[in-house]
Design a protein that fits this description.
6 helices; 2 domains; binds zinc ion; six-stranded mixed β-sheet; alpha/beta; 10 strands; Lysozyme-like; 17% strand
Amino acid sequence: MSAVKAGILTDKRVTQKIYSGIEKGILKKVDALVIHQTGALTAQHTFNSYAKGGHGAHFLIDKAGNIFQTAHLDKKTYHVGKVRSKCYELKVCSKAQLQTVTKILFNKSKSYPARVSELHSSEKAKSYPDRYPINEDSLGIEIVGNYNVKAKTYEAVSAIQNSSLQWLVAELANHFSITTADVYRHPEISYKMASEASSASW
Ligand SMILES: [Zn+2]
């Protein structure tokens, strides 16, 4: 059984490789986990990017299934981006909510990126789980997997990677009292390529 102390997940299966440049202030609570794929061939590619700061996630699972912790669990990282409307995607909006969402999403007088930003701001005013998780209340897990630009698909998550993911998700779910309903694939909640982490299982 792993332990969490001072933002570190302590277990022999986890190697600490913290990049403080991707840590963006205090993460006050963890309500959800978001599963990503890196879009790069090797873990080193992502580590090089993390060393420069900017976007990042809390964990990385490499091709061999090794688990690295790359940010403290009590620090925010930028891994989610702008979120979709949960009630809209799940078709459970109230009449008023649906009006708000469609007014933003189909506003032809604004550019698509502007609409996505406006929708994010509108969603952010809701609290989880009424909206999808955001950087302020979730941990990100990256799985190393390349992106094929021509085919617009991510490579499949391997069995050994999924086995590490299952263990990691179970440990984090236990520490933060979250359920499998609180674990999301990135494209499910944000406007990303649908195949990202599509073959991940936990
Ligand atoms: Zn992602």
